[in-house]
Design goal:
The chain is mainly alpha-helical. The protein has 6 helices and 3 strands, in the order αβααββααα. It has 2 domains: about 60 residues, Winged helix-like DNA-binding domain superfamily/Winged helix DNA-binding domain (Arc Repressor Mutant, subunit A), CATH 1.10.10; about 35 residues. Strands 1-3-2 form a 3-stranded antiparallel β-sheet. The protein is elongated. The two termini are about 20 Å apart.
Length: about 130
Amino acid sequence: MNVTAAESHIMEALWERSPRTTDEIIAEVAPAQNWGEATVKTLINRLLKKGAIRSERIEGKTRYTPVLQRADYVQTESQDLLDRLFGGRLEPLVAHFARHRALKPGELERLKRLIQQIEEEGGDGR
């Protein structure tokens, strides 16, 4: 399921707390993105049509809940990025960040531990 960058702001609000009404989503997302109410409502409707969220009437108000789980979204987005920019290969991605962004204290050690853990689990990272 393809969720656009704009739609992802609505999803983040719902992953953080749900169910939420339209007004609650607008109150959180619109000011942060400098969007009007109509924009937020349009994005909510797009997500409903895609099946990423669902609506239900609770106490006389329509409330929205995510159907798409954040972990599934992150997996799809990260794999798309890896495929698009690095031919699906993880090594060039890691090398790129290691060369162009200073590692924070402890990051290199955590990466080494992660690699060791992956090797101990059979090498596939799962």
